[in-house]
Amino acid sequence: MKPRPRKRFGQHFLEPAWADRVVDAIDPQPSDRFLEIGPGPGVLTRRLAPRVSHLTAIEVDRDLAAALAHEALPNVDVVAGDVLEIDPGPVVGGEPLRIAGNLPYNISSPILFRLLDWGRRFRKIADATLMVQQEFADRLVAAVGTKDYGVLTIFTTMAAEVRRLFDLPPGAFRPVPRVRSSVVRLRFRPAGVAVRSETTFTEVVRSVFTQRRKTMANATRTVAESRRVTAAAALADAGIDPRRRPETLTIEEFARLANVLSRDVPPA
Description:
Elements: E1 13-14, H1 16-26, E2 33-37, H2 43-48, E3 54-59, H3 62-70, E4 76-80, H4 88-92, E5 97-102, H5 108-122, E6 125-133, H6 134-140, H7 151-159, E7 160-168, E8 173-174, E9 181-188, H8 198-209, H9 216-219, H10 221-225, H11 231-238, H12 251-262
Parallel strand pairs: 2-3, 2-5, 3-4, 5-6
Antiparallel strand pairs: 1-8, 6-9, 7-9
Helix pairs in contact: 5-7, 8-12, 11-12
């Protein structure tokens, strides 16, 4: 009996024919350790497990987790839990780790930011091949100056090289979603653009993109004044034209601006 997808978990199960293509794109190797996020009924799990040294599958739906664990697939440990809440230490471990997953559309951003955080903390994650909504993928791979370029693009690119592998039609899933999906690969790198303070960099990027239609002179005002410096002075020091808009700045330019502002953090 096929499991019934649960709306509260945003479940759309991958069809077997498309799972074969996804696994081919992942290109698992016999020595690889894998973490699978949201295995559901295990369509991807059964194809990955025989081709890798070990796979940990994290499933928030306890009924699906129990059913998958009952199969006792070789090389597979099933963890019933929320990937946003589990302790990553035992999962990541000391050996290189690869990740695969079919991310629920409604929580793709939190899961991605969780993985980026793991990548920074553990430096053991090699790559992540993820199925996401096509519009989400557009934002991940967006070029500077486009409407899709923003916070998600910048924070992801700081930590990983992102590539769209191919698109999936709605019919690749059951139940059929109303949107198309994409398979993307993130190759994590040891370090991105150098910043003096990650906290300041994060604050600057998030702050200006809440005002992306404004010029940098206006969009930077709040975060600059919180550091007792004018936006004009900070932008001049960073070599950025105050008439530009946030979506036209490269990651390197945001880093320069954040480095300028990190010198002016007021005392506690």
